[in-house]
Amino acid sequence: xxxxxxxxxxTGGVGGIGxxxxxxxxxxxxxxxxxxxxxxxCNDLSEAMKRKGLDTHYMxxxxxxxxxxxxxxxxxxxxxxxxxxxVNNAGIIPRGNILETTDDMWFSALDVNxxxxxxxxxxxxxxxQEAGGGAIVNTSSTWGIYPGPDHVAYCTSKAALAAxxxxxxxxxxxxxIRVNAVCPNEVNTPMLRSGYTTRGIDPENAIEELGKTVPxxxxxxxxxxxxxIAFLASQDARYICGETVEVSGxxxxx
Length: 254
Ligand SMILES: NC(=O)c1ccc[n+]([C@@H]2O[C@H](COP(=O)([O-])OP(=O)(O)OC[C@H]3O[C@@H](n4cnc5c(N)ncnc54)[C@H](O)[C@@H]3O)[C@@H](O)[C@H]2O)c1
Description:
This protein is α/β, with parallel strands linked by helices.
């Protein structure tokens, strides 16, 4: 299997793409430690994996806390003896233009989407260096490359994450550590659906309509993003480093 005995840390494990990632990596032989906010949700996911015969570990906590980010990496090293793959998937999407963006929305976006990735990578890279290599896959967004409308905090945080990915990719390639990012456009997850629900719009209809704006005819399903992340983390992508890979069904950002 592609990830036999690999030690993998996945953030945002309980979310749409995160759930698909936990399932995929565990199914392909990885030793998985996943993270998310709620202890109860993490436990539910771990139990669901157990019912499929997959053993996973979790550590619940708030990625806005540096001590939690560092403890997560320490936990992987303690439990598995090292860390081969770090998947920085967790994210939040405060919505609004600058006049609608409060201090809290701005700082939360940067804390979860950018600063946590900085803390996690800084904690993980020494162990990867010691082991002679590793892979980090960050989840940016097509909106981090071409900012979409009225999401100033989100777009800024994802653009900074794309830049962080390229910087780390360049700096740590000599260590055998490949750092890449996936940049999805719209994906059918709670993050996308909640945007419709809070505006009183039925997500099913909205997603069907949204699909018509994508040249491939539909928005992405979580597993389709997880597959690209797994590819980037795998040996099949051994010469890909410092890249931001757009996964958009050919839909441009308007
Ligand atoms: N859904 C989309 O259309 C889309 C498009 C482009 C990029 N992305 C990115 O994909 C990634 C996964 O998103 P998703 O669509 O699966 O969203 P999601 O909301 O389903 O999952 C995100 C997960 O991150 C967790 N999380 C958020 N803040 C946290 C914190 N402070 N501490 C710990 N965990 C925290 C959430 O609890 C949630 O389970 C995100 O980085 C998102 O920005 C999503």
